[in-house]
Input
Amino acid sequence: MLTRKELLKSLILAGASAATPIAWAQTEPVQESEAITLDDLKGFEKVAGISFTDDERKQILRTVQAGRRGFEAVRKLPIDYTVEPRTLFTPIGGGSEDRPKIDLRPESVGGLDIKKLSDEDLAYLPIPALAALIRTKQLSPVRLSELYLGRLRQYGDKLLCVVTLCEDRARKSAAQAEKEIADGHYRGPLHGIPYGIKDLFAVKGYPTTWGANTFENQSFDYDATVVQKLDAAGAILLAKLSMGALALGDVWFRGQTKNPFNPAQGSSGSSAGSAASTAAGLVGFAIGTETLGSVISPSTRCRITGLRPTYGRVSRHGGMALSYTMDKVGALCRQAEDCAIVMGTICGADPLDPSAAARSFVWPAKIDPKKLKVGYSVGQSADLNDLSQIDKDPALTALKKAGVQLKPVRFTPVPDGVLNILNVESSSAFDAFTLGEQIRELTNSPWPETFRAARYVPAPEYLQMQRARTLMMEKFEEEMGDLDA
Output
């Protein structure tokens, strides 16, 4: 059982970090006599047994030059001999099934009258309300699925948020859910709830494009673990939703996914379609992923609630790998309780993903806000005794009024160079792609330069970054470990 603190620390429900290309540390320029040249790159390629063109070398030269400054910054950190890299080896076949039970809070499901709700009203209801109507047989899963499929067809192309409709699968699942509920076999709060999934997850019988023109016709003959768990809960998959090409940004091979509240603006990425479709009432909820902001950023942009769980809480099996030690699977919903319901369904161990942890998940029915200790971020030069920001910020003022204990926090910045863990791991994941011809056909993506430049990071430097990551995690616990959120 998780403690209240462990639960709340796992719920990161808002933020503003965007999924942007990872730049190398930008520090003071090196002396011209020490600068890396195109000939140096060519020589390194010979040692590594790879080969890029002159144009490709010119594209990545500055990145590689700056990368060396990142190495130097990491070397300056006080990394003791006893500090190990933040990596974990788990034997193949580890883990077991773990299906936590999430019950709806009574106050979330009362007072609904289906006769007073229009289709538009139904489309925007949160999961507990939809679940209550379905469980009491006031609302048919078939009707709800057809309602959402109609909205996906009506608005999907306008928002550029839908890659593939899974209509046959959806109708079969909806009919099955309706029969089971009619027969008295109710599986739980997601039974009969339609959803969409980011198009980096494998779904048998449908393309999995990864948002990239080079993978537009790709498909897999199996379902991702998260899809299997949602199937078991009785949820209904309606559509595969757009994502930035290879999980970066909100631009994919058909264009830019739109923010429903401001179509002149992109929905942010890379879980672009998952956020836009949830915000527009095209699905009951959506599944996305995050490596460095890809759930939090589009949720902020589209004004929905996104949950980016701790790494290892949800199986990554069947999803596109970008960073082996940073990829997370999360829910994009209309409210926090929806995220808890979905999280309780998809989390847990998985024999097909050794990193997935067998930890239970508990959604507390009631919390006394006066017992909560919540931190809020302040600048590096801020006076931690100055609490005036609380009265200037509406969110902090509301928390204070509710009785929450508020504490200003200075978060130590991530050391220069450490974020390049993502670059190295993504380059490894796309190794064959990077060294093949297909990468030259990729459009709407800066990834080729990142993948190529990461080939010039020596293996010891990557492990030094992971060791620095260990220090960063320890520092985070030191600064924020006493907080509930």
